[in-house]
Here is the input.
Amino acid sequence: MNKTKVAFFDTKPYDREFFTETNRKFGFELTFFEARLNPNTARMAEGFDAVSAFVNDDVSEATIKELVKAGVKLIAMRCAGYNNVNLAAAYGKILVMRVPGYSPYAVAEYALALLQTLNRELHRAYNRVRENNFSINGLMGFDLRGKTFGIVGTGKIGRVFAELLQGFGVRILAYDMYPNAEAARQLHIEYVSLEELYRNSDVISLHCPLTPENVHMINDEAIGMMKHGVYIINTSRGKLIDSAALIAGLKSRKIGGAGLDVYEEESDYFFEDRSGYAIDDDILARLMTFPNVLITSHQAFFTREAMTNISNVTLKNIEDFVKGRELVNCICYQCDGNRQCPGKGDHAA
Ligand code: NAD
Here is the structure.
């Protein structure tokens, strides 16, 4: 029998390392492309059974058309979020699968690390000491104890974030369209309206997916409701925040700090070594000038445990598809764009 051929797009050395190792037990034929998936590069998938794409690949209608033309049957996303996939265009033509919840700990722990780095000025202290400057002037932070946290989205990551906060003696507010009564009881979460969360939180951490409805949910109006000096942490998706509004909030000191692992126009920059080149995105460049803004390159997921799970589940998804098993991680248009698919695998029929 011919080996199943899988084309990986937008790969880095660590993808190749983990997937090659994990594939020893699956035995697929893997090809790793550095190129991002888009309507032009989709042709490279000619002759492959499946493609694997990541967070900044362009899985738009035009790309999907090319993949279908090339004979590809499955798009195996090696991430949890799928806001970059046009599920409506895929429906009935090509199956889409993903890796939900490969390590909520990786992302939740990282959100806390971003907050505490900013709050306790570790990024600035590190640079000072390297310059033999041992002064602590200007590095004062605040105790987390007694503060109010607002968690937007209490799915897998949001709940682990709430779990991590249990030791800090904080009050936890949350907003989710589907409040989780069990989490509320166990993790002392008070579900409130989004407006109440904005008005009362000292720290706001975003853990909801990006959907057409919540693009720029953190905008001028939302920031206007927030407490003076609020900290905003975004490890979810960049487009949840209107960056121009964020800059205005930072300039007016309304926002005390912002920890951003994602940025709305990140795809031109994140994951790439652009040292030596000018940044032509003026908004990103401005954000990078604030001492109380910490930007990282979409790395919250990046732990050994998460990479192991991502490679295992992605290849298992492909195997389930090839062997005609139930597709538990299938996502489709019918799922309302926000819930795990019932997994019959018949959506492309
Ligand atoms: P999940 O599906 O388990 O939970 C998402 C929760 O958000 C659900 O409870 C859902 O009801 C809720 N929700 C949906 N829309 C909402 C809205 N408009 N307002 C409030 N709540 C809303 O997902 P998860 O595994 O917890 O992941 C959350 C997000 O984190 C992903 O969608 C992805 O965008 C992001 N993520 C980022 C990284 C990274 O490396 N930075 C890694 C993994 C996931």
In short: Confidence is low (pLDDT under 50) at residues 336-340, 342-349. The CA atoms of residues 239 and 264 lie 4 Å apart. The longest strand covers residues 255-260. Residues 80-81, 101, 104, 107, 152-158, 175-178, 207-211, 214, 235-237, 261-262, 298, 300-301, 338 surround nicotinamide-adenine-dinucleotide (CB under 6 Å).
